[in-house]
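Thread: quick sanity check before group meeting

JM: Hey all, I'm pulling together slides for Thursday and realized we never actually wrote out the predicted structure for the chain we discussed last week. Dropping the sequence here so it's in one place. If anyone has concerns about the input, flag it before I start.
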Amino acid sequence: MQPAISVLGMGRMGSALARALLAAGYRTTVWNRTAEKAAPLAAAGAEIAASVGDAVAASDIVIINVSDYAATEGLLRNGAVATALHGKLIVELTSGTPDGAREVQGWAARHGIRHLDGAILATPDFIGTEAGTLLVSGPDDVYEAARDMLRALGGNVQYIGADPGLANALDSALLALMWGALFGALQSIAVCRAEAIDLETLSKQWSSTAPVVGGLVADLIRRSAAGRYAADAETLSSVSPHFGAFRHLVDLMEARGIDRTITDGYEAIFRRAKAPGVICLPSRRCLRSPDRARRPGSCRR
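JM (edit): ok, ran it. Output follows.
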């Protein structure tokens, strides 16, 4: 028998979550602080709860998708609602920090509430599709019991581990990659416009270049996992030629008056990385190159 589910928060993402559950045949109750946002779900078959307490009472599983963990705390951590949650499952799909997720887990455990934390790596249109990706962390037995329900939200559900903070941690790591690509794209667009290059041309060339960039990223991750930070026979591309090309970019930007906010950060990292005998990582840890002694004062922080 399928569990009854309540979804708290009827923004675009919360509404998509509720619609996916309804499409999968789950009895679904929804609640939103502004009741009008929940009203369209009634036509799709959802029950509309008048209060958070009513939503919790109606279901075995409570999915939360609100603005932040502080908003979650305001909804759930009052005596009556916390008592009603006893023995039930909270699935937190609100964006937050790893430590925030661990704190929620601790609170839930103290109140006899099961808890999973998740991160959605999708826009609302992917929810309920095979391509919809969710990262989930928390006790493995709780995850196994909820797995079928989670797959209704997205076909690509990834269990990250028992530590409830892992889903948010990996989410942040992947977002760092995404934002690097998006900010880089804005920089590329600015250069093309300054040099009167049609953006359709940029798009076509990016399609050709993307596999090369993807290969470099994958190689960097593999090398970091193995602790191989210094250049070796398998190095695809070392710092020096990259820095030479980077200087050309900086010269172009200065000549055309393009904002250097992003590239100033890149330049600082390049210069640290080129200090003799020192490998400086973005984490600000400095490693001695295996074939060189560290020169005093060569790492400037």
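AS: nice. The longest helix spans residues 166-194. The first strand starts at residue 5 and ends at 8.
JM: adding both to the slides.
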